[in-house]
Amino acid sequence: MRKFRRRNMKKIISIALTAILVCSLFAGCSEKAQPDAAPDTADTADAGSYPTPENPITLKFGHISPDTSDMHANAVLFKETVEEKTGGAVIVEIYPNGQLGGEETMLDSIFSGTMDMGIISANVAATTIPEFNCIVLPFYFDSFEQVGSVIANEEFYQKTAEIVEKKGVHFLGTPLMAARGILNTKHSVRTPEDLKGMKIRVNTGSILADTFDAMGVTTTQLAFGEVYTALQQNVIDGLDNGIFASNMMKFTEVAKYFTNTMHYFQLSPLFISDQAYQKLSPEQRNILRESCKEVEAILVDEANKSDAGAYEVAETELGVEVIHLTDAQFQTFRDLVQPVYDKYVPLIGEEYYDFVTSIKK
């Protein structure tokens, strides 16, 4: 009985091994009979779906300034350059004057992908991307030329673009700059002491409020559209703003003292949503960057001319007293804002701060 069982067991094992061998042979034949695996067509498919002149993409581009502003003129130059270089495959549709919302709303929309592109002030961008605080630090830059040396630096662009991309959107460059001063309804300002007792409207971003707090000034972040009436009704005594924008918004009709403190330079980066960016070919993405660089190339000359003309209009046509500070007077303001650096440089990151500082010329 045991011998019978052993003989049967040997037969079963033999049959099983034979079956396994046959299956493996057929499996091998089956693999060889299959055609070679199809190449990955994802790139090809994507390339086929990129915008073309016959099937263009329209990118909605928002900013908060009127269509008479430098910001709008720069947006138009960007639009025209992009459309020309892409042969009409990429159409840029500009919405000025806050039609797509305020800067905070537009930035949120770019992050969510419900808006394609927008120019956003660095101080607003810094609320989400703290590294932008670096170019909003008080008295960090001395001139338009020094600002221009930074934004034209390709390494600055690359480092900043990498930081921004990690946040989920894309940085194309900085197509606007303007020097900020202090406009008020009370009296001329030459020292921080002259600001005591005033209530000053400052732009969005904690760093600006902290800057004026360090100078002993009460601040408010009143909506920009409410500033004119607030100046008229003495709700506020003044604001930090550029001279060109102050004339354009007619603030200099009711406030007659402007001090060119240059406490910071208004820099406004251009962002594009990741959703819009991914729809473009690598070449089209590069065209967006190159088009922004063309705008950056004219900024220093544009800003100097714009301010010179605006100062002349303010003084000769609007009766504004314009105060240009001496080096010693500038220093009295600088001496008060060191606590702002102590607070924000760690938020910016020492490495990024040191890098940007090293390329200022």
Automatic annotation (TrEMBL):
It holds the Pfam family DctP. CDD domains: PBP2_TRAP_Siap_TeaA_like. The keyword Membrane does not apply. It comes from the Bacteria. GO terms for biological process: transmembrane transport. Residues 1-27 form the signal peptide. Keywords: Signal, Transport. Gene3D superfamilies: Bacterial extracellular solute-binding protein, family 7. GO terms for cellular component: outer membrane-bounded periplasmic space. Belongs to the bacterial solute-binding protein 7 family. NCBIfam families: dctP, TRAP_S1. This is TRAP transporter substrate-binding protein.
